[in-house]
């Protein structure tokens, strides 16, 4: 599929000399949900701000929907909707007015039906005449989302959308993201919650220290880096791991009722079948077997710390 | 999209709406201030000084009074209009919107200038409660009002982008503009001053603005009308140039 976003050689050094982004290259295809995953200070907000026109890049180019973000800013900016990390909105205005302002700013003619639809989808319709300052934090965040959706963007950025957000809003938001994607929109979200990227994204980019360490299909990423664990529930508890099993790296858990085996799911020989037949030979009975994939969290910790470990080695 | 008309309309409407919320104070404060000026200047001084340049003193001070309020109102409204989004962080939306600097200026300055002109007319109406003020060139008067409103709103817009605190926002109007207006012949004719003050006063640009505005009322001013217009034009060009430069460089707007 065609890319709706192409980032080429983007770097950013803030006034004051702090380099927030190294050299970033990234393509995002139309219609996908892309998660930028990285710890605080990794440069996620900086990258998004550059694409949206809020921060000037130090070098490189960005193309959105086929046009350069500087030369073709009219087109690229009206294509984009942004829900920033920080809540900042006109406190003294009514919800409906501030959302209508956003639609106008992005060059769209007044459309009360669309504004109503957006407000209803975000459960804001009942509060449309309330002043923004009267709303709770979660409701204010909904207003920010409504503003971003007011002009029907093709490309939506959600910067840490669920940081400090209650369960209900989080669920509503993911429902909305899925619906938007079904409607053909492309969604780029940043997060430092692994589960979020794991649940939502088609592809994941891992960013750390201003560098995009890796970009992968989520499933491919899981496969490539995923380690699996085999949990063997024993019929009789073991006091220690028998010497006959020393060629596998095993641990005992659950007071000796559980034997855990960590293996690389993509190795030619995972060692699983050999382990099971050896258990049979040794007369160790088991009631149940299950395997578990490692979460993105494990992968992430592994990736971010790998350079440091390699440097130390 | 050659011009983002929808954005201009949206900002303009939004800003006027903001003014509407404070309309009562916005209109009553100038009206009350004007009345006070009339009581103090018009009655107290006017009872001793009947005429200036052949115009009754009470009427003579009206153009200066209108200018005084319009200068300060234009500057404070326009500077607030752009400073507040910077302060609250909502400026992110303006930066991420397909809006050109020119459109931003038209919308913000247009809204602030609209309010200034309304206030100017309000003061004029209040003045009629106290004195009869002849208007020799009504259309020129209105045109001059609009030009002054736009120039000072542009200046206020620059101030709002430059300011990094509320203190900085209020320091220029208080420390520069109000004194310059008082010393610029708002309540007297420059001809009444002895030398060297007369010559020194002519370096104050506000003299030319008030003089020009007074001309539209009484058909005469301290300086020739074309000199006044040249000053207004110069102010418009300089302010607009500074704004273009600010947007080009992202001065105090973008990181
Ligand atoms: N306006 C700024 N001026 C200077 N440094 C900044 C500015 N904004 C962000 N930074 C720095 O740039 C780095 C990346 O920040 P950011 O993009 O906000 O990261 P993230 O969104 O991944 O948490 C951080 O080290 C941060 O301190
Ligand atoms: Mg961030």
TrEMBL record, chain A:
Q: Which residues form a coiled coil?
A: none
Q: Which InterPro entries match?
A: AAA+_ATPase, ABC_transporter-like_ATP-bd, ABC_transporter-like_CS, ABC_transporter_ATP-binding, P-loop_NTPase
Pfam families of this UniProt entry? ABC_tran
The record's PROSITE patterns line, in alphabetical order, gives: ABC_TRANSPORTER_1, ABC_TRANSPORTER_2
Source taxon at top rank:
Bacteria
- State if Nucleotide-binding is listed as a keyword: yes
Could you tell me one molecular function GO term of this UniProt entry? ATP hydrolysis activity
Q: Which keywords describe this protein according to UniProt?
A: ATP-binding, Nucleotide-binding, Transport
Check the record and name the Gene3D superfamilies matching this protein: P-loop containing nucleotide triphosphate hydrolases
Record's keyword annotation contains Magnesium: no
User: Which CDD domains does the record match to this protein?
Assistant: ABC_DR_subfamily_A (cd03230)
Q: Where is the ABC transporter domain?
A: 5-234
Q: PANTHER family this protein is in?
A: ABC TRANSPORTER ATP-BINDING PROTEIN
Its name, as the record gives it, is: ABC transporter ATP-binding protein
